[in-house]
Amino acid sequence: MDLVPQTDTSDALLPVVGGAAVNCAVALSRLKVPAGFVGVLSTDAMGLRISEHLRCEGVDVSLVRRSDRPSSLAIAQVKPGGVHFDLYDENSAGRSLTPSQSPELADTVKALVFGGISLVHAPAADAFEQLMACAEDRLTWLDLNIRPSVIRDDDSYRLRLDRMIRQTSVIKVSDEDLAWFGPLPELRPDQLLLHTRGADGVEARMGNWQHRTPAPKVTVQDTVGAGDTFNAGVLASLAHADVLGPIAKIDKPTLAQAIAYGVRAASYSVSYPGAHAPTRKDIE
Q1: 40 — alpha (psi -120 to 50), left (phi > 0) or beta?
Q2: Which of 10, 67, 104, 129 is 20 to 30 A removed from 210 (C-alpha atoms)?
Q3: 2-278 has which CATH code?
Q4: How far apart are CA 93 and CA 77, in angstroms?
Q5: How many helices (H) and strands (E) does the chain have?
Q6: Taking the CA of residue 4 as centre, how many other CA atoms within 13 Å lie in the half-sphere pointing to its CB?
C-alpha cells in the first residue's frame, strides 16, 4: 500500500493500492490484456483492499496465497528529483512465498513480469527466480526497479539479479537502477535491453539493433508507477499484435511500435497523481 500526500498543503497521507506487480497487472487489464497476479497478500485490512482492487480491475487472483503477516507499506515523499519512497517490508506477507508454493503455469500464460522488492529477500525471491527458470519458451520480463532502502545484503541481491538478467528475455532498467547496479553483464543477441530515461524517452538495444523512442512533452503530476505502466504498455502492444513469445522472433517495426505504445502509456500515467494506468481508449 502506498501512502501518498493527500494535498500539497496537508500533512495527511492517503492510502493508495500500489506495488510494481499490482500496478503492472492493473495496467495490462485496463489495456484489454488478460493478466494475473502471483504472490502472497495479507489478510489484514490493506491486503483485503489490495485483493479487492485487483478483482475489481479484472486481474485474475486465483494464484494468490494468503498470509496473516502484514502488508508492505511505502510512504511517498515528493522531492525535487522525483518521488522518494520509504519502504516498510520486514516480515511482510509478500516476502513469505516459498519455492514449493510456486504455481504451475497454464498454457495460456504467454509472458511473466518480475522485479522490484519481491526479488530482494528469501524465500519469495527464491520462488520468483525458480519461476523464471521454469518459464520455458514464454517471454520473461525483468524490471530491476531497485529500491536500495530495503536491501540488507548487497552482494546476495546483486548475484540474484545477475543470474536473472542472464535468463530473461527483456531487461528493463532506469538511470537509478544502473547507478546502483553498475554495468550489466554482457547480453545475448536474443535479449532486449530497454533503458527508460524519463523525459528523454527510451533507448532500446538487441544485438546490433538500436532504437530510440522520444517521450512526448507532458505536465508531470508525479512518476509513481510510470515504469510499471511502461512495461504493461509494451506487453499490451505485443499481445494485441499476437506476437507474445520469443523476443528475437518479433520483427523490429512491431517491436518499435510496442515501445512507443509503452512510452505513451507511461506519459499518460505521469500526467495524473499516483499509479494512474490508462485504458486502451486513453492511449489511442
Answers
A1: beta
A2: 129
A3: 3.40.1190.20
A4: 24
A5: 8, 12
A6: 17
Q: Which set of grid coordinates corresponds to residue 38? A: 502471483
Q: Running along the chain, 284 residues long, what does each successive block of 10 average in pLDDT? A: 77 88 97 97 97 97 96 84 81 96 92 96 97 94 94 96 97 96 95 95 97 94 88 98 93 97 94 86 90
Rg of the chain on CA atoms, in Å: 18
**SS3 label, residue 238:** helix
The Cα–Cα gap between 7 and 125 comes to 35
Report whether 28 contacts 57 (CB < 8 A). no
Please say whether the beta carbons of 77 and 86 come within 8 A.
Answer: yes
Q: Residue 253: is it exposed, middle or buried by C-beta count within 10 angstroms (0-12/13-18/19+)?
A: exposed
In this structure, the strands spanning 73-79 and 2-5 are parallel
Cell 500515467 sits at which residue? Answer: 269
* Bridge pairing between strands 170-174 and 192-196: parallel
pTM of the complete model: 0.94
Q: How far apart are CA 233 and CA 238, in angstroms?
A: 9
- pLDDT score of 95: 96
Phi, then psi, of 113 in degrees rounded to 5: -115, 130
Alpha-carbon distance 132 to 120, whole Å? 15
